[in-house]
Amino acid sequence: MAATSSSSPIFFLTIMIIFLIQSSNAAYNVNVMSYGAKPDGKTDSTQPFLKAWSSACKSTNPTTIYVPKGTFLIKAVVFGGPCKSRIVFKIDGTLVAPSNYWNLGNSGYWILFSKVARVSIYGGSIDARGSGFWACRRGGRSCPAGARSISFSWSRNIILNGLTSINSQTIHVALHHCNNVRIQNVKISAPSSSPNTDGIHIQSSTDVTISGSTIMTGDDCISLSQGSKNVWIEQIGCGPGHGISIGSLGDYQNEEGVQNITVTSSVFTKTQNGVRIKSWARASNGYAKNIVFRNLIMKNVGNPIIIDQNYCPDKKGCPHQSSGVKISGVTYRNIKGTSATPVAMSFDCLSSNPCSGIKLQDIKLTYNGKSSSSYCKNAHGSTSGTVIPRSCL
Ligand SMILES: *[C@@H]1O[C@H](CO)[C@@H](O)[C@H](O)[C@H]1NC(C)=O
């Protein structure tokens, strides 16, 4: 009975119809090589990448843009939207920036996704070859502004998974006016001496998750500036670098606040700071509230726990105004390890605008095998469990 029906014309017709339906829904694929990209690291492949993007962007079917193994030279490029459907970048190769840093010039970005939605990037390595630019800055010569390696602006529903980014001129991964972004399993590295090479920078963005990533850099591993909301950061290995920072805030009189930020299950190794909130002592309506730092391990970290409302790194022309960014509702729970300086916990807040609602629970930070100490100025809150160094709240 079964054999008879499976050889019937109706059976074959059914199979054909299923096949046709499936292929019409199947993701459409484009390979950058078919647009002329060359994996030789020398030929400028910017236009072929843009042509592949434009074809994907126009397609009403979901499209995968495939970048095979090899090294592709890419100049400053904007992958702009809005696009008609979902786009996946599947990258097996490496994208390199031009070796002359003037080439990215003053554009501020190298690879920029602007006004896109439902874009996922899987795999890939990007190398901005920033060392010439850093040397220029260190030498105090006249240098271009510098470029962020990969940026997303005015975009939503973004996945960045498995990317390796090395030697950015400035920030490696930047989000600006984005919503619903997942950054997973990325590896970022630049030398500890490289200036302002933040790992991931978030600004004016909501619903961002960063997880399972390793960041070694010359500035903040992750920095969250004004307008960062609903951000979840977990399983980050940070170091070398300046730690995970909220701020600097108070850059402007009028700025958006930072709220609902969680940093958990992460390890800081030999970083300048662990978890830090920093703001300029300047009149501002900015704020930081509902912040949770928990389940963190500090290994020989300069300032494991720090709030600095008098931030002024160069100690030149510092604003010393009475009002500043309001910092409230900051929880530190289960933070253990070693401090590289005697003061493991420092809350330096302004008398006109004290820090409030700081909660400390189960902290153990030692310095040179002994208990470290804490510093408080205009900081208020509560303590529970064992807290070493002794709380000064
Ligand atoms: C806080 O952010 C998390 C994501 O990190 C989100 O799931 C949660 O809904 C947010 N809470 C509020 C009150 O918005």
Descriptive report:
- This protein is mainly β and 393 residues long.
- The chain has two domains: 28-219, Pectate Lyase C-like (3 Solenoid), CATH 2.160.20; 221-393, Pectate Lyase C-like (3 Solenoid), CATH 2.160.20.
- 11% of the residues lie in helices and 51% in strands.
- The protein contains four helices and 29 strands.
- The chain has helices at 2-6, 9-25, 46-58, 131-138; strands at 28-31, 40-44, 63-67, 71-73, 77-80, 87-96, 109-114, 117-127, 148-153, 156-161, 164-166, 173-176, 179-184, 187-189, 200-203, 205-216, 222-224, 228-238, 244-249, 258-269, 273-279, 287-301, 303-308, 326-339, 343-348, 355-367, 370-371, 373-377, 379-388.
- Strands 5-7-9-12-15-17-19-21-23-25-28 form an eleven-stranded parallel β-sheet. Strands 8-10-13-16-14-11 form a six-stranded parallel barrel.
- A hairpin with a 2-residue loop joins strand 26 and strand 27 (370-371).
- It is globular and about 75 Å long.
- CATH architecture verdict of the largest domain: 3 Solenoid
Strand order of the largest sheet: 5-7-9-12-15-17-19-21-23-25-28
Query: Termini separation (Å)?
Result: 82 Å
CATH fold naming of the largest domain? Pectate Lyase C-like
- Give the count of helical stretches: 4
CATH superfamily of the largest domain: Single-stranded right-handed beta-helix, Pectin lyase-like
Q: Which range best describes the helical content: under 10%, 10-25%, 25-40%, 40-55%, 55-70% or over 70%?
A: 10-25%
Report the bound ligands by name, code or SMILES.
2-acetamido-2-deoxy-beta-D-glucopyranose
Top CATH class of the largest domain = Mainly Beta
The count of domains is 2
